[in-house]
Amino acid sequence: MKTKQYHVEFEPIGRRGECPSDESLLEAAHRLGIELVSLCGGRGTCHRCKIQVLSGKASSPTASEQEHLTPEELANGYRLACQAYPLGDCTVHVPAESLTAPQRTQVEGQQVKVTPNPPVRAYNIEMSPPSLSDLRADAERMVQALNQQRGVSCRSVDTEVLRGLSPLLRSWDWKAQLSVRGAEVVAVLPPASAQLGLAIDLGTTKIAGYLVDLGSGETLAAQGIMNPQISYGEDVIARLSRVSRSPSGDTGAQKLVVEAIDRLAADLCAMIEARPENIVEAVVVGNTAMHHLLLRLPVDQLGRSPFVPAVSGPMDTKVRDVGLHLAPGAYLHTPPNIAGFVGGDHVAMLLATDMPRRNGLVLALDIGTNTEVALVRNGEIASVSCASGPAFEGAHIKDGMRAAPGAIERLRLVDNSIEYQTIGGQPPVGLCGSGILDAMAQLYLAGVLDKSGRLGDHPRVRSRAGQREFVLVSEEERDGRPAICITQGDIRELQLAKGAIRTGINVLLESTGCSEQDIEEVVIAGAFGSYIDVSSAVTVGMLPPLPLDRFHQVGNAAGTGARLVLTSMGKRSEAQAMARRIQYIELTTAPQFHDTFIKATQIG
Ligand code: FES
User: Fold this and answer.
1) Which atom of ligand 1 is nearest to the CA of 47?
2) To the nearest whole number, what is the mean pLDDT of the chain?
3) Based on CB atoms within 10 Å of each CB, which residue in 136, 155, 326, 585 is the most buried?
4) Rounded to whole angstroms, how far apart are CA atoms 204 and 294?
5) Which of 59, 67, 78, 80 is the best mutation target for the ligand 1 pocket, counting ligand atoms within 8 Å of the beta carbon and taking the most?
6) Dist CA 374 CA 144 (whole Å)
7) Tens-place pLDDT, residues 494-545
C-alpha cells in the first residue's frame, strides 16, 4: 500500500510536522524532538507512552491498548503512541506524565589534583603579511611562523580550519592563537583566546558536562541534563534493540544525543561568556552501548549474546564526524571499553578513585541501570557488570519516579507513622531510588517484611487490586489524591535489583578467594549511589555488612575521570594501561551464579 503523508500537531508542546502513514505517533514524536517516555522501546508493553488524539483519525486500537486502557480512555481518544498510526491529519495532546521528567542530575565529584599536560596546546604567533616579494600561501606562512617562533614541529592544518583561515588571518592583522594537537593545527583563534576542553559523562539516563580550562586544568562550568535518548528505551537493551530493529540503521538516537551535547556545550560556554568554537578537545566516557551509539558503531552484536563490542580500544575521532559543533578541527577522545557492558565510564571511575595505586582490598561500585563493580586487590582489578535494571531509577515501581521535585528521598517508619523528606521540600508525588531503598529497609527493620520479601501484617498494609501494599502516604494525607504505596510487586522488583548487585560483589569475592570482612574500603560512585543512605543499603543486603566508616560516597567519579583524561596525557596513558589489566568476569558464566543470585535476593 502506498505511504501517505499527514500533518500531525503535538500539543501543548506546539511541535508539528509531516508524518507518514507507516510511522507510529511515537516515532513521529521522537523525530520531532518530543521526549515521550518509551520504557519498552515501542513494543507496546510498558504503557507509558500514553497520548490523546484530540482530532483526526488514527489506526484502530490494538489488543495491547484494549487491554491496558479503560473503555472511557479509549472513547476519549487515549492511545499508546507506539501503537497508533495516523490515518489523516491529527492533533495530539501529550500529557505531562508521558514526557521524560527533568531530573536532578549530579555533576559533583571529587576534585583530583593533576598537573595539566593537555593533548592540545595554545601558541600565540605573529606573521608578516604577504607581499609581491613574499608569495607564500597563508597556511605555510602560519605553520612556518609557528615552528620558528614557538620551537614546535607542526606539519599540517586541519582541512576545515583551512576553509576559514584566509579571511580570519587578515581580519586579525596577522596575529593568531593556534591550537596544536600533535603535529596538527586543529583551531585558529583570535590572540589570547580561552582554550577550552569539554568532558562528558554520557550516562544511560543522564549526561553530565564539564567545561575545563586546558591550560590550568580548572573546571570553569558544570551542568547535568537528561539523556534524551531515554525516549528510545529506558535501559540499554531496549535502546539497542530499538535501534537494531530499524531497517535503515536508526540515526535518530545518535542525533538526539549529539544535539543534547551540543546544547550542553553551548550552555556551559554561555555561563563563562565563551563560545563552543573555543572548545578544542572533547572527551566522552560512557558505557559501551552509549559509546557505540554516539560513534555510530554497529550495535546489533552488542545487544545479543555473547555481547561483543565492535571496538574496545581508545579512539580519537574528529568531533564533526559525529556531528558535534565545537572548534572545526577538534578531536573527540573516548577511553577504552572493557567489555560489552563495561565501558570507558568504568575506566574513568577507577582512574578518578586512583584504584591502581590502592593497597589492600577495595570494592568500587558505580550504581545505575547497569551497575559496574570492581574488586581491587593491591592494584589488581577484576570487574563485573550487573543488570540491576531501572528499579532504583523509579521505573517498574508502582509509585516510583525519577529524582525530581516532590520525590520522597528519605523515609523512616516511627511508631506506625511515616516521616519523610522530599526533593525540594515539595508535596510528595512518588518515591525515587533512595526513598525506595529506605522504605524497604524500614519495613524489614520493623518486621513488616520477612527475609523472603513477603509483606506481613501491619495497620498500614492493605490489599488493592489483588496485591498487598504498604501505605506510605495515604489518600487523606494527600487531600484525596491516590495514596503513595510500596506494593508486594515493587518489593519483588527491588529484590531482583539489589540481588543483582550483591551477586556481582559475591562472585568477585569468590573469584579472588577473599571474604567480605577482608574489604577495607567500599567506594560508591554515581548519582544514585551518592544519595542513598548506606545503612539502608546494608540493611536490605545490597551491600555487605561492614562498619559504616568503610563506605565512601564519591559522587560522579566517572565525570572526574573524564576531566583527568581531558587535561592530562599522562592520565590518558594510565587509563589505557589500566584497561588492558582489568580482568573482566562474565557474571552469568561464573560457577554457582544461579545459587548466589537466589541467595542474594533475600533481604538482610
Ligand atoms: S507501550 Fe508504547 S513505548 Fe512502551
Assistant:
1) 1
2) 90
3) 326
4) 12
5) 80
6) 50
7) 999 999 999 999 999 999 899 999 999 999 998 788 888 899 999 999 999 9
